[in-house]
Amino acid sequence: MPEVVGWDLGGAHLKAAHCAGGRLLRALQLPTPLWLGLQHLEAAVDGVLDGLPDAPLLHAVTMTGELADLFADRRSGVRAIAGAFAGRLARRRPGDALCFFAGSAGFVPLSGVAAASAAIASANWLASVACCAEALGDGVLVDLGSTTTDIVPFAGGRVRAIGARDAERLETGELVYLGLLRTPLMALAQRVPFGGLLRRPMNEHFATTADVMRLCGELDEAADLLPAADQGEKSVEASARRLLRMVAEDLPEAGLARAVELARWYRARLLDELGAALDEVLRRGAVPPRAPLVAAGIGAPQVAELAARTGRPLLRWEELPGMAAASAEARAEAARCAPAVAVARLAAARFSAAPLGATDGTVGEAA
User: Fold this and answer.
1) Would you tell me how many other CB atoms lie within 10 Å of the CB of residue 197?
2) How far is CA 161 from CA 292, 327, 335, in A?
3) Given this model, what pLDDT does residue 1 score?
4) Which of 109, 233, 310, 331 has the fewest CB atoms nearer than 10 Å to its CB?
5) Whole-angstrom Cα distance, residue 353 to residue 2?
6) pLDDT class for 260, splitting at 50, 70, 90?
7) C-alpha distances in angstroms, 10 versus 35, 92, 119?
8) Residue 131 near residue 149, CB atoms below 8 Å
9) Distance between CA atoms of residues 102 and 109, nearest Å
C-alpha cells in the first residue's frame, strides 16, 4: 500500500491522517475558520506538512469547507479549496501525488475537480461510512462533531443512505446541523426552563454548545480550537456568564449552580434532538435490529448514551476491524478525524497496485 495522508478540509477545522502500510501513524485537527479567508486553510495545511517525512506521499482529499460563506456557491468553493490546497502542496512537496474523493465516482485528479465538484462537495461522510460498511457489514455510523452530526445506515456491506446531497440528507435525518461545540444555543429551543417557569431565550449568538459541555464537565478542552461566542476566555465562569446571558441573567446574581442546571437542560435537549433523528433513521429498517452504532467524532462519548437509548451495542470508530494504529495517541485521535482516516484508507486500497500518477508540472496526480 502507498503511504497516504488523508485530508478532511472543513469550514471550521482541518483534519489529517497519515497512514503507512495499513496503519495509522498520526491524526490531528487544526482550526481553519474559512469564513475569514483561505489563508487560514493554507496555514493549517502547512502545519500538517511540517510534520511529514521526506519520502513521496499520496494525498487524498475530502472536504466540507465549500459551504463557508466565503464562497458564492458550492462549485466555486470546491474549486477554490482544491486550487489553494494543490498550490500549497506544489510549493512544499512538488514530488507528491494528489487526488480528490468524489463519492461514488471514486477519486479524481486536480484536473477533474471542476467537472466532479458536485460529487466532491461535502462527501466526507460517505468516505467514513464506506469504511464502516467494508469493515462491519451492518450498522449505523453516528459521527457527532463540533458542528454537525452524521447518522448513516449501512447493511450487507453497502451504504444504505437515502440522501446523497446535503439537501436530501437534511430531509432524512441523516445529517443534523447540531454539534458539540459550535451550535448557537438559540438553535436548540424557543422556550427554556429557568426559575420554575418557561422563558423565551434571546435569539442572539451569546453562547454555544461548547459552553454547555464545559459546564457539564464533558468538554475536552483540546478539541475546542475556535474562539468563544464573545471571543472571551474559556473557563467555567466565562461559560456560565455567556449561558446566563441567553436568559437575560448575570452570573453574580443568578449564581453558578443555576447556570449548570441550565446547561444540563440544554445538553439533554441536544441529545433528544439527535436521538429523534437517529430514531427516524432506524425506523426505516435498513439495518438489522442488533447492528451496532459506530461512534465517531469528538462526541463519541455522547453517542454511547444514544446507543443505550436504542438498546443497540456500541462500537467506537477506532475499534473497527482493520483500524490499526501505530500508537495509543494515534488511536485516540482516530475517531475525531474519522473522515480523514477513512479517505486515506480508501485511497490506499484504490492505489495499492497503481503508480501514484504522472506529474502535471507542479504536483503529481493519482489518476
Assistant:
1) 8
2) 16, 33, 21
3) 64
4) 233
5) 9
6) very high
7) 11, 21, 16
8) no
9) 10
Q: What whole-number distance in Å separates Cα of residue 19 and Cα of residue 22?
A: 6
3-state helix, strand, coil in the chain (%, to 5): 40, 20, 40
Give the pTM.
0.93
Residue 94, number of CB atoms within 10 A of its CB: 12
Give the whole-angstrom CA distance, residue 53 versus residue 101.
Answer: 23
Average pLDDT of the segment spanning 248-272: 98
The DSSP output letter for 255 is: -
Q: How far is CA 69 from the centre of its chain?
A: 18
Instruction: Express each pLDDT in 39-79 by its tens digit.
Output: 999 999 999 999 999 999 999 999 999 999 999 999 999 99
How big is the chain by its Cα radius of gyration, in Å? 21
* Grid cell digits, residue 57: 506521499
pLDDT tier for residue 365 given thresholds of 50, 70 and 90: low
Contact 249/235 with Cβ under 8 angstroms? no
Mapping DSSP to helix (H, G, I), strand (E, B) and coil, where does residue 170 land?
helix
d(CA 47, CA 244): 37
At 100, the amino acid letter reads F
